[in-house]
Amino acid sequence: MTRLWRSRLALMWLLPLIVEAIFWAVNGLEEQPPGFGLWALTLMFVGVNEELISRGVILNRLLTVNRAVFAVLIGATLFGLPLVIVHATTDFTVIHAVELPSDLVIVAVHLLVIAFGIALLRGRKGEHPRRAVA
Predict the structure, then answer these.
(1) The pTM is what?
(2) Which of 107, 79, 104, 103 is nearest to 14 (CA)?
(3) Of 20, 42, 64, 68, whose CB is crowded by the most CB atoms within 10 A?
(4) CA angle at residue 83 from 62 to 58, to 5 degrees?
(5) Which of 57, 29, 56, 61 is nearest to 43 (CA)?
(6) Helix, strand, coil shares of the chain as percentages rounded to 5?
(7) At what angle do helices 103-121 and 36-63 cross, to 10 degrees?
(8) Residue 29 φ/ψ, nearest 5 degrees
(9) What tens digit of pLDDT does each residue of 95-127 get?
């Protein structure tokens, strides 16, 4: 997030999730009880919960290459409101979709997410396993 190319890379990895949510919405949404409003609220909380659990994994990784203050700031930025909104939108559109996407679309999205996770967990060559936190 501190360099422009990394921000573009982060946006590129969000793109499959955004495309998936748009795909579901374009195919049509069907209102289900208790209604769009309560579903949106519930899934916003689900997104927040899941992102907070994931935050621990990312923060641990960031601490290996950054001082504590910078790791926390970068982690907070990564898991800020834009990701929560994208996550909740994807959940919302999946639940209310009239038609399911093809298996190929689902597999492609999941492969991209897995590739991104692997890229995050791999270290850069020559980096120290853990810097001293001051």
Answers:
(1) 0.37
(2) 79
(3) 20
(4) 15
(5) 29
(6) 70, 0, 25
(7) 30
(8) -120, 145
(9) 888 887 788 887 887 788 777 777 766 655 555
Q: No. of H helices and E strands in the chain?
A: 5, 0
In angstroms, the CA 19 to CA 70 distance is 31
Q: What are the structure tokens assigned to 80, written together?
A: 């800020």
Amino acid at 12: M
Query: Taking Cα atoms as reference points, which of 114, 117, 109, 110 lies closest to residue 22?
Result: 109
Q: What tens digit of pLDDT does each residue of 37-66 get?
A: 888 888 888 877 776 767 777 888 888 888
The tokens 């038609």 sit on which residue? 99
- Identify which of 32, 90, 80, 91 has the alpha carbon closest to the alpha carbon of residue 52: 80
Name, in order, each residue with C-beta under 8 angstroms of 96's C-beta and a sequence gap of 6 or more. Answer: 24, 29, 30, 31, 32, 36, 39
